[in-house]
Specification:
- The chain is about 35% helix and about 5% strand.
- By secondary structure, it is mainly alpha-helical.
- It has one domain.
- Strand 1 (about 35) and strand 2 form a beta hairpin.
- The radius of gyration is 15 Å and the shape is globular.
């Protein structure tokens, strides 16, 4: 069995053309505990964030270890993104005004964006 190398190990920056490939590889590698069951009992991946293709966090390495970076992208971009500060910032100030360096875990910075 051939394992697809992780797109995040070693760290790389993603260009727009490689984002669909990154999404496919991350979803293929994600832990099944993030899956949901359809009406036939088949495990299906949970939906990804609608903004992942243009998200500065998703499309670039952010200085974490590859493992933490991958884990955060699975958590905030490919599964339940309700706790993502970047998504909250989009709703608060609009997509164009979200700072590139805002991390999904930085809810405390949202007040300064208003």
């Amino acid at each position: 069995m051939t394992r697809i190398p992780s797109p995040l190990h070693p760290p790389v920056s993603a260009d727009r053309q490689s984002i669909p490939r990154l999404l496919t590889e991350l979803v293929a590698e994600q832990d099944t505990r993030f899956d949901s069951m359809d009406t036939n009992g088949v495990s299906v991946p949970m939906p990804r964030c609608a903004f992942a293709d243009d998200c500065a966090f998703f499309t670039a390495d952010v200085g974490y270890s590859p493992e933490l970076n991958r884990s955060m992208k699975i958590r905030f971009c490919l599964t339940d993104n309700t706790g993502c500060a970047r998504l909250a910032a989009i709703e608060l100030v609009g997509r164009e005004s979200v700072p590139d360096d805002l991390l999904p875990t930085e809810e405390q910075r949202l007040a300064a964006l208003k």
